[in-house]
Amino acid sequence: MTPEITDPAVLAIAEEIAADPANASFTKRGVGPLFYAGPQCRIMIVGQAPGRVAEETGIVWNDRSGDRLRDWMGIDRDTFYHSGKLAIVPMDFYFPGTGKSGDLPPRKDFAHKWHPRLLALMPNLEMTILVGAYATRRYLHLPSSASLTEVVRGYKQYLPAYFPLVHPSPRNQMWMKKNPWFAADVLPDLKARVANLLA
Question: Where's the Uracil-DNA glycosylase-like domain (predicted)?
């Protein structure tokens, strides 16, 4: 399972999210918000939204994209889910459904409504890993026209608070081949920073 939330303040927000009328269709089906946050977290991962597998298993990043993200970060599943130092706070905490070309985007107002309240409960955060276009645009205050490739290429200008990444989806394999600098320069730095913060 996604790590069990034990902090009372975070748990109260999780219950509010589940009770929100905007999430009634999920709550009615017995689907709870998929995220993890706590006062001991040092790193926050902001992705798009849970996928179908995540919803079915109740575990965020429980797919090939998650395996690749963990590889990029240089950590194993146990550290990812059970260290208590990694907050997993997607742009939407529910699977938005499937469209013509993959999963639908996260709901526009979801992060605006809930992220600030969770961030206020995580005073020890030192780095936020922004995975994909939706997270980078929101947290780096970028226009929709911003090139994610160029944002990631210039990642050092957003450090140490933010570390932007492309999505680790297998669909981005071609992107990886076209941009060898990512594996050569960006990922070693990411691994080193993650290791330092989790030490």
Answer: 34-191
Helix/strand/coil for 51? coil
Distance CA 159, CA 189 (A): 11
Q: Are 50 and 94 in contact, with CB atoms under 8 Å apart?
A: yes
Number of CB atoms found within 10 A of residue 44's CB: 23
Q: Which residues of the chain have pLDDT under 70?
A: 1
Residue 59 · residue 49 · CB < 8 Å:
no
Integer Cα distance of 166 and 174 in angstroms: 12
Helix, coil or strand: residue 172:
helix
pLDDT at 113: 98
Q: Which two tokens stand for residue 159?
A: 């450090």
Residue among 161, 156, 106, 158 at smallest CA distance from 135: 106
Pick the CATH number of 8-17+32-198 from 3.40.630.30, 3.40.50.40, 2.40.30.40, 3.40.470.10: 3.40.470.10
pLDDT tens digits along 141-195: 999 999 999 999 999 999 999 999 999 998 888 999 999 999 999 999 999 999 9
Q: Which of 139, 148, 186, 154 is nearest to 167 (CA)?
A: 148
Do the strands 43-46 and 127-131 form a parallel or antiparallel pair, or are they unpaired?
A: parallel
- State the CB neighbour count (10 A cutoff) for residue 120: 10
Measured CA distances, 142 to 81, 153, 170, 196 (Å): 30, 15, 25, 28
